[in-house]
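Help! Submission page says 'invalid entity' but I think these are all valid:
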Amino acid sequence: MVTQAAPAMTMAPSEPEIDWDSLASRARLARRTRAVVLYAFLIAVSLPIILPYFWLVTIAFSARTGVAETAVLWRSMAVVVPVIVGFWLAAALARNRRQLWFGFAAVAAVAVVAFALLVGPDLHLGNFIFLWEPDFASVVRSRVGEVKGAVQFPNVWHAFGNSILIAGAQTAIVVTVASLAAYYLSRFQFPGRSSMLRSLLVLHAFPVLTLIVPMFLMLYWIGLLDTLFGVILVLVAFELPFAIFIMKGFFDAVPWDIEMSALTDGASRRQAFVSVVLPQVRNGILAVAVFTFIRGWEEYIFVFTFLIRNSNWTMSLYMYWVRDDVMGVDYGVVSAVGVFYLVPSLILYMAAQRYLMQMSVGGVKG
Amino acid sequence: MAKIEFRHVSKRFGAVEVIPDMDLVIEDGEFAALLGPSGCGKSTSLFMLAGIYLPSGGELLFDGHLVNEVEARDRNVGIVFQSYALYPHMSVRDNILFPLRFKKTPRDEALARVKAAADLVRVTELLDRRPSELSGGQQQRVALARALVKKPQLLLLDEPLSNLDASLRLSMRTEIKSLHEQLGVTTVLVTHDQIEATTMADRIICMRAGRIEQVGTPDDLYLRPSSLFVAGFIGSPPINLVAGKAEGGTFTADGTRFPVVGASGEITVGLRPEHLRFGEAGFAGRITQIEPMGREILYVVETGMGAVRVLEQGSFVGHTIGEQVKVAFRPENSLVFETKRQKLIVGAHVRTPA
């Protein structure tokens, strides 16, 4: 061993001198290039996602009846795209946290000034006329001389209330039933348990639209057609399987020990469930609740099929009819309704973001 | 406080019979340990005591009253789980308070009892923290306080020390034992660690595959193990077991001959490492391994009967690997078992060969 190792040792000095500095700078350059390319790519692919929302908001606050004007859009883009690049540059060049915040603040300040100068004069709230004028369609049409044929719109707050009712009731039912069912599936052994679990997934795999005609007939015969309750039941039925499956994962992660401990501490099975087990799956319940609520909030096909009277319209139907009625005349109003429709789910997502992340982290285990 | 009785208790899970037939009495105020390897049914017995599992057959009595059907919450049993099972969403105070919530204890009295229980295990300054903010040892104390706050008639400890590090384990051992002396509550400890059992318990119930192998004091189990299993389970490093044949007063194992008294036929001789010593006479071997363990040294000696462990007191390594030695023992320290039935032959012993 020793004699073999000796020649290898003596070879090292005869090798050419290594230029560590040039190796380091080459690696530095490669790292920088990779970062630049990566960020450029990410900005490029995220633009088509961000821009439509940005435009939606800009149009909602700037478009005027009967005027097909796009200059303001381009001016606003001339502000937004450099701002995004500016933020990125600030993040890339900052050497510490303070410089980073300083850079962000500077870019934001420039952005605000530029926006106020270039886009500001065009902004107005007139497109949100539907919030205070139920017959806004006639008003908008009369501005361009068309007076007849406007759809009778219900008050937008009525549609808003309907949507809240559908999404809220659906969420309440789904969360309650899914929690109880998932707990039972997670904790108890009963005949047919595994096939039930399998069928939960299979049920979720079906495209629900295929059932739209039978559902229509069923609702008609039960007498729940054109009622909010009917739609709620249908939505609950379709949302439950997946919610149960998600909740089961959360219940599985709760150790048996604390439940047994609660039982020996004097709790009944129900008290142990409520006071010890449920608090452990709080994040799961919140995640399921948010997803179910947003699912109900954005529901379109079923409400379109099963609800007929305009007093039963939800926000999605309201949006549909606004588009149908005034799109050609005033796309600003359509965009404004879109923004109004978007805000609640945006708020909900932002408020619950922390819990939604948990779903992928702590949630699903067979 | 309660006297616990198992009368022909059995437990099945589906087709699996975990405990076939268990008879056991634990006296009022006793500290008993259920000791055995994992899967021997000791935890199952504990959960039957707690009321979490229903016995499949037989009778379970607390103070002479049949409790088979009594629900867990009505048994007034305190239990400390291996994982401590603290409620993560509650403060330490609420954790300890939890058992009193269901007893309709008046608020003032309940808080006073929480304070007393916390004082007892010295977690008073932790009452406002969450379990996740506590160390393992502190969680253990909180779990003890929660088990004790309801003044249980029976305290169950399920592997309470196995999640602690070595030094904490040592101090908790002493602490749990002194708590028991202070409160006098009937206590059942479940463990697979013989040291935990022998150091804390008044009486050890050694279990194997759902059956009780031996019940006795730590001394009984160490000095007079009733079976090969108990002899092998108790003691560290483990006992040396040599199987062979006894005929006409001579025990022969792989060519080595020992004088034997009181036994004949197929027997197994048990010699504890700490009872063996190197000497002028004895059976011959060669040291193949030396493990200094601080205040004692373990030698592995290769003999004609296989490897034999010898434990020498002191920290001085007086021998070298490869050294030829002779190993001797005192006859009264030898244990003789029937190989077939695995039972101790009382009164039989072997001598060091001349």
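Support: the input was valid. A stray whitespace character was the problem, and the output above is from the cleaned input. The interface with chain A takes residues 47, 50-52, 72-75, 77-79, 81-83, 85-89, 98-99, 101-103, 146, 150 of chain B (CB under 8 Å).
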